[in-house]
Amino acid sequence: MGPPHVQEVPAVTTTPQAVRRASPRTRRPATPVAPEPTAGLLPQTEPVRLLDPDGTPLPPRADLPEPPVETLREMYRRMVVGRRFDAQSTALTKQGRLAVYPSSRGQEACQVGAVLALRDDDWVFPTYRESMALTARGIDPVEVLTLLRGDWHCGYDPTVVRTAPQCTPLATQCVHAAGLAYGESYQGRDTVALAFIGDGATSEGDFHEGLNFAAVFKAPVVYFVQNNKYAISVPLSRQTAAPSLAYKGVGYGVPSEQVDGNDPVAVLAVLTRAVAHARAGHGPYLVEAHTYRMEAHTNADDATRYRDPDEVEAWRGRDPVARLEAYLRSRGELDDAAVAQIAAEAEEYAAELRERMHAQPTVDPLSLFEHVYAEPTPQLVEQREMVRAELAADAEGDA
Q1: Pick the catalytic residue: 153, 306, 316, 331?
Q2: First to last CA, the chain
């Protein structure tokens, strides 16, 4: 059998005009460029900074107006008092008056800046390291230290001071903050919740669940990550490969920013914008502050085992208190007399705290059995009655 017959098809020659007439599809408008999915979500590639480490102001930015100078003066005052409180609390652990104390020395700009960015009726969700922030918020320092003293779970009434109990479990406050913020918004109130987070907590599931919930339901919450470079002894490089922790908001549709956490002016400016974003109904905002923990993780930690002394010394030159003081002096808003007056106030604050903490608290042993169960179990009732009998016997023996 010969090869199949193949019919030759004459070549078709077309002109550009013929092609345009051949199909109406060629006349459709140009496809618009798809918007960048991360537009408005990505943080800047470098942390926002408005002051050099020596306090010299950088060129002003229209998108981040500088806070009023009276607010900066108050910020300086609270930072100085807060640092003295922190030092006194560290000393109290050595004297056996506190079981443990996580210092926030070096993070004063973050601790105080977050408080000043909020209204009194906003909510704060702290970690165990936010004692300075809570005192800067006006909470009685003895009540703040009650948890670390071991007397009760929380020494203050959260509903009165609009501040959740300090939490030791990592990142659990992220979900709580999202829920409260959504509840406030649902009831028509413009309350903002701010959740403090450590860099280590960003690896916990609660952090991601909180961000996702807040983004989906547009909860007015600000997630404030204090990246102090170490999750106890684990450096940031062993925890994440992200360019910065601020980029973790992109995956949930949460706008983010990173800031020099030792620049008080920049911290307050960035957080003020983040709070305004949340309060306006635009949903959550993530801020990462690059800062450094100057002291050990707690008094039970030996930071020399995992940190180079030269690294610590380098960060000492970026002191946020000294930076703001230099800036305010350069503007004529602070002088030697004012600095001395604030230092004296800080010493008085520490002396009163020391005196009150040295007073032995009156403790009722039977209170151990309160708030354990809504309905005490038979075993708990039995144990309580045993303690009650022992106390009665001791009282009779002393009579």
Answers
A1: 306
A2: 128
Instruction: Please name which of 379, 151, 149, 398 lies closest in space to residue 387, comparing C-alpha atoms.
Output: 379
pLDDT per position as a tens digit, 323-374: 999 999 999 999 999 999 999 999 999 999 999 999 988 888 998 898 899 9
CA 51 to CA 66: how far, in whole Å?
11
Q: Any long-range contacts for 64-68 (C-beta under 8 Å, 24+ apart)? A: 64/266, 64/269, 64/270, 64/273, 65/269, 66/265, 66/269, 67/116, 67/265, 67/268, 67/269, 67/272
Q: Among 84, 97, 176, 297, which one carries the catalytic annotation?
A: 297
Query: pLDDT band for position 4 (50/70/90)?
Result: very low
Output the DSSP codes for 11-32.
-----HHHHHHH-GGGGSPPPP
Q: How confident is the model at residue 35 (pLDDT cuts 50, 70, 90)?
A: low
Tally the C-alpha atoms within 13 A of residue 348's C-alpha that lie toward its C-beta: 6
| Tokens standing for residue 82 | 């807060």
Pick from 269, 120, 118, 136: nearest CA to 195: 118
Looking at residues 112-116, what average pLDDT do you find?
98
d(CA 218, CA 211): 10
Active site residue 186: no
| Amino acid found at 319 | D
297 is written with which tokens?
């993780």
Q: Which of 293, 318, 327, 349 is catalytic?
A: 293
Cα separation, 42 vs 39, whole angstroms: 7
Mean confidence (pLDDT) of the chain: 91
373 given a catalytic annotation: no
Confidence of residue 164 (pLDDT cuts 50, 70, 90): very high
Q: How far apart are the C-alpha atoms of 262 and 171, rounded to whole Å?
A: 23
Least confident of 8-12, 77-81, 111-115: 8-12
Under a CB-based contact definition with an 8 Å cutoff, are residues 45 and 75 in contact?
A: no
Rounded distance, CA 145 to CA 165, Å? 11
Residue labelled with tokens 């409260």: 180
Q: State pLDDT tens for residues 274-317.
A: 999 999 999 999 999 999 999 999 999 999 999 999 999 999 99
> Does the annotation count 282 as an active-site position?
no
Instruction: Tell me the C-alpha distance between 211 and 195, whole Å.
Output: 11
Beta strands in 109-181 (DSSP E): 123-125
Confidence (pLDDT) at 232: 93
98: which 2 tokens? 């506190």
